[in-house]
Structures are given as C-alpha cells and as structure tokens.
Amino acid sequence: PHALAPAVEERHPLQAAVVEHIRSVFSEAAAGLEARLAEAQAAADGKGREVEAGVARAEAVAEELLASEAAIAAQRATIAEAEASLKAAEQERAAAEARRKAGAAEREDLARQR
User: Fold this and answer.
1) Residues 28-55: tens digit of each pLDDT
2) What per-residue confidence (pLDDT) applies to 3?
3) Are the C-beta atoms of residues 35 and 43 closer than 8 Å to each other?
4) 3-state helix, strand, coil in the chain (%, to 5)
5) How far apart are CA 97 and CA 39, in angstroms?
6) Which DSSP string corresponds to 41-84?
7) Is 4 helix (H, G, I), strand (E, B) or coil?
8) CA distance 94 to 110
9) pLDDT at position 98 over 70
C-alpha cells in the first residue's frame, strides 16, 4: 500500500519495482482467468451443441412416433373393416347353410311323398 501512495514520478525505484511485480502478478492471474474462462466457454458451447443435437434427435423420434401411431390407427381401421367383412361373410355362410338345410329337408319331404 505504501508503494502506491506517492505519485508515479515521486516513487523510489524499489517502489516502482514492487508496483511492477504487483502488475505482473495481476496480469498473470488475469491471463490465467481468461484462459479458464475461454475453456469454460468452449465446454459450455460444446454442451450447448450436444443439447441442440439431443433436442433434434428427440424431435425426430417424436415425429417417428406420431407417424407410427398414425400407421397403427390406419392398420386398426383396416382390421376393423376386415372383421366387419368377415362377420358379413360368416352371416352369409350361415344363411346359405340354412338355405341348404331347408332345401335338403324339402327334397327329403318330396322324396317321401313319392
């Protein structure tokens, strides 16, 4: 503190040397801090890019999921239509079987009457 009290022109050479050493220490500390800051900023930027890439992947997966859900819904609709067609075909088969049995019974009745 005493080395800094007098004006620059009035300082003793040893005072000037002490002030210069203090400046040197502060300059080195500032340079070290700037380097650490640059490293931290580079790491933060890298993490930011990783986060952005992760968000992009998540969005792509979400789009795939929506497309898959739409495909599943379409397949379910197709299955429902196929089940309805199957049910109609089974009803038609049952009706045809009933007609066949009725026809066979009629033929038997005709055969008995002869």
Assistant:
1) 999 999 999 999 999 999 999 999 999 9
2) 58
3) no
4) 90, 0, 10
5) 85
6) HHHHHHHHHHHHHHHHHHHHHHHHHHHHHHHHHHHHHHHHHHHH
7) coil
8) 24
9) yes
